[in-house]
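Board notes (copied after class):
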Amino acid sequence: EFNKTVESSRKLETNVEKSYTVLDLLRYPVLRKRSLILGLIWFSISFGYLGLVLSVSRLAGNKYLNFFISGALEFAMTWLVTFYVIGKFGRQKPMSFYAVAGGISCILAGVLSKDTDALRKLTTAFALCGRVCIGGIWSVIFIYTSELYPTVIRNVGLGTGVFCARVGNIVAPQILLLGEKTQDYVPFIIFGSCMLLTGTFALFLPETLNMRLAETIEEAGVFKKVTEEPTEPQENGNDSQLSNVRVEAHDNVVSISDEGQ
């Protein structure tokens, strides 16, 4: 076991010396698939989230109250619910569920955006619900992206995802302008459709909960479950004597003393 650990460390040192770029994310099939899906997810959640935040002032009711309610619910979703959920159910399924739920909420907000007061209130409720769901994805995507990429290229993969999110931030206001030129429901339909697509593609990513993270690109396609092997007490009589032995190191000199003496 010790020799395997040393060999793994040597391989990691060799790979760390090589610098990886964005092109390497597309060069390897496993990384290419994950990068394309994660790029879509990062783009969609930033695109949909900013679009819904900017549309708060156009919803029925007090815009300040709407913003406060959505922020409070989003905080509860992120800190009180999501962290528990991803620790129990993993990353893939909760993220897909949030995306689908947010997409359906956005589409319903668009379909119900009529002139009647009751329907406008429903539109507000579904729009705020969509924002809360997308906010839940934000608390998953950083962890999930970091776990999906091997150590040697993790920073490149995470940086690429953040870049896609910034592109979504650029596009979102233009979709709201499109709604002003056409119909009010158009932005909600676009945001919702994009989130539904995201929730579907998220199911093609592997689960990383309790999995040993890959260190090299060669290990990227294999996730091994982390298992803890309990240390069984040995029955050898000499072991009971060794339990009283304390190892101390001072200035690279190791001294062994018997506490029983």
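Comment from the instructor: Strands lie at 211-212, 224-225, 245-250, 253-258. The chain is about 70% helix and 5% strand.
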